[in-house]
Design a protein that fits this description.
The chain is an alpha/beta fold and 411 residues long. 29% of the residues lie in helices and 26% in strands. The chain has 9 helices and 21 strands. Strands 1, 4, 5, 6, 8, 10, 11, 13 and 15 form a 9-stranded mixed β-sheet that branches. Strands 16-17-18-20 form a 4-stranded mixed β-sheet. Strands 2-7 form a two-stranded antiparallel sheet. Strand 5, helix 1 and strand 6 form a beta-alpha-beta unit. Helix 5 packs antiparallel against helix 6. The longest helix has 20 residues. The two termini are 25 Å apart.
Length: 411
């Protein structure tokens, strides 16, 4: 039995002067558009999957899109490009209300168009390794090779309806000096797939909390240009991934009606020691006098967070959800936030043909593995300040996502 599938793409105008999300040390709002900001929708048997070319989406935004859709359910995911408009309600770069409203409206249009155009489709699965794009940014000495995974939906006439692609790597090839709106390497990847298939490509970023293309998180604090972090490099890497899919071996699936389920998760915050935070704030104040403009902007965010945080805000856990869309023996598992790659690997090991995507139905910050906490670092200790959250998530939060996903998978 085949599923009913439709896809649509809607563009969102982003005026010059719109704040960009993703770099605390970026010194300018947008100055133009390199490639368009898009909202892409895929509807499978009445369940929607939406991908938005922004860094962060608040869970309230995702809920609003879901509730307005009229569909059985909708998963809304941020591509996590660090060169997209800031619409995260203050998380990771501020908030532009006009562009936010345009994104919500575009999502509604795309979902409606995809639903109206849905038709019978067969499904195929591909998984490719060896692309050499993703690097462990916390431990560069460790070699990683996460899979590029994809689902292809094809009509009875053998015409491709859509391709759903996921890869766990930060879309942050471009550095903080870039002020042109872009989906980073995701844009050339999608262009390559769409030119090969003649159909929309929807990209979902995987569990990339500790994965990018080869630089430490702290490298993005500076306002100085970084070697190799260019549009040409983004095009090269995106093109490499598109070429890998073009030559992939596709497995036809025995499809049945798609099934979607979700479970709620509650993530506690780690306690913040006031004395230690005060000492760090004094160090930041001293450091800002000799910092370059970019790092000074980062330090100012941290100092402001330390001064104005309210410990009482940590009393209530963050609430989100983990989802499962099961299609003919292939599973799309969606998790919120920025979990580390090992979380996806644990989930994907549960059964064949599992695509794990992050940044879905809310992006409240990083979710490191238990093992990462003693090491500290930006993802463990400091990112919560740029995310304007009450504190970092408690140790074990990422593993709670794994447990929820495994319950949905029936493991």
């Amino acid at each position: 039995m085949s599923v009913r599938v439709g896809a649509a793409v809607a563009e969102v105008p982003v005026p010059a002067g719109t704040p960009l999300g993703g770099f605390a040390g970026r010194l300018s709002a947008s100055t133009g558009v390199h490639d368009p900001t898009t909202v892409r929708a895929l509807v499978i048997d009445g369940v929607g999957v939406v991908s938005v070319d922004v860094c962060v989406l608040h869970e309230d935004t995702c809920a609003a899109i879901r509730e307005a859709s009229g569909l059985a359910d909708v998963v809304v995911s941020a591509v996590h490009t660090h060169s997209g408009p800031a619409i995260g309600h203050g998380r990771a770069g501020g908030h532009d209300e006009a562009v936010h409203a345009a994104v919500v409206a575009a999502a509604s249009r795309a979902l409606a168009s995809a639903s109206a155009g849905a038709r019978e489709a067969e499904v195929a699965w591909a998984s490719v390794r060896g692309t050499g794009v993703a690097k462990d940014r916390r431990h560069p000495e460790r070699a990683i090779d996460p899979p590029l995974t994809a689902l292809r939906f094809t009509g009875a006439d053998k015409e491709v309806i859509a391709t759903l692609v996921s890869y766990p790597c930060h879309p942050v090839v471009l550095d903080a000096t870039n002020t042109l709106v872009s989906a980073d390497y995701v844009h050339p990847l999608r262009v390559g797939v769409e030119e090969a298939t003649g159909a929309p490509c929807l990209f979902l970023t995987g569990a990339a909390g500790d994965v990018n293309t080869g630089h430490a998180a702290a490298a993005s604090f500076s306002s100085a240009a970084a070697s190799g972090r260019t549009f040409a490099r983004a095009a090269e890497l995106g093109g490499r991934l598109a070429s890998a899919l073009a030559s992939a071996s596709w497995e036809d699936l025995e499809t049945a009606t798609a099934r979607f389920a979700a479970v709620e998760v509650a993530l506690d915050y780690a306690p913040v020691d006031a004395a230690s935070l005060g000492a760090r704030a004094e160090e930041w104040l001293a450091a800002r006098t000799s910092a370059d403009d970019g790092y000074r902007a980062v330090l100012d965010i941290w100092i402001d967070w330390a001064r104005h945080r309210r410990p009482a805000d940590q009393a209530s856990p963050w609430a989100g959800r983990v989802g499962l869309l099961d299609v003919g023996g292939a599973a799309l598992v969606t998790v919120p936030g920025e979990p580390f790659l090992a979380i996806a690997e644990s989930i994907a090991a549960a059964r064949p043909r599992v695509m794990v995507t992050a940044y879905s139905d809310g992006v409240p910050g990083y979710l490191p593995t238990r093992e990462a906490y003693p090491e500290g670092g930006y993802e463990v200790e400091d990112a919560c300040m740029y995310y304007a959250m009450p504190g970092p998530f408690a140790r074990g939060s990422a593993e709670s996502l794994t447990a929820a996903a495994l319950r949905l998978l029936g493991v």
